[in-house]
Amino acid sequence: RGAAMLGGQVLLLLTGLAGSAGQGQERDLGGRDASVIAVTNGGPWGDWAWTEMCPKGSYASGVSFKVEVPQGVMEDDTALNGIRLHCSHGGDPSGGYTAESQSGRWGRWSETRWCPHRGHLVGFELQVQAPQRKLLSDEVAATSARFACSDGNVLEGPRSAWGQWGGWSPQCSGAVCGIQTRQDPAWGLKRDDTALNDLRLFCC
Prior knowledge:
- InterPro entries: VOMI, VOMI_sf.
- The chain is mainly beta.
- The strands form 3 sheets. Strands 1-2-14-13-3 form a 5-stranded antiparallel β-sheet, with no helix packed on it. Strands 4, 5, 6, 7 and 8 form a 5-stranded antiparallel β-sheet that branches.
- It has one helix at residues 2-21, and strands at residues 26-29, 32-38, 47-53, 59-67, 80-89, 92-99, 108-109, 113-114, 121-128, 142-149, 154-156, 164-165, 176-183, 196-203.
- Helix content is 10%, strand content 42%.
- It is built from 1 helix and 14 strands; from the N terminus they run αββββββββββββββ.
- It has one domain: Vitelline membrane outer layer protein I (VOMI) (Vitelline Membrane Outer Layer Protein I, subunit A).
- A hairpin with a 4-residue loop joins strand 10 and strand 11 (154-156).
């Protein structure tokens, strides 16, 4: 009986891990049925923060990026700190609604980049510096992101010399309508800060 219970616990654990990978998983968020799209190259530090959705009936048509510029030799860089979705009804950006999960404390927000032709976001990829794990190395994790629009255009964040692009997420059959970030908290002098590590988007 004990072995059977243990087997069941392992199965539940594996099921939970498979769900947390996020690709195609169905979830009900704020009254909206949504599936998750993710990438495989996110950074390993921090925890998943809250999910935030566009208002019901709206979708993400634009995006802005919170980025800390390079700080120079012997300073702690964090690069990409946050992603903000800009939501619209039918591609009309005048509503001013945004969706933003947790963002890091460093850097400044870019101007909003919008999908042309009243398009909407359908996928993304991350540029990420793989863990260096060397003495005195400066870990930065996610450094930039790109977002695919429904008309084939790409919205790209500020360019970074750090990290590699990891490949595109699956594309939404509908449109992106929500966001969740994995954030490393601010450690101060205790250890290296990395801010944003990974990203999930929700499709409606």
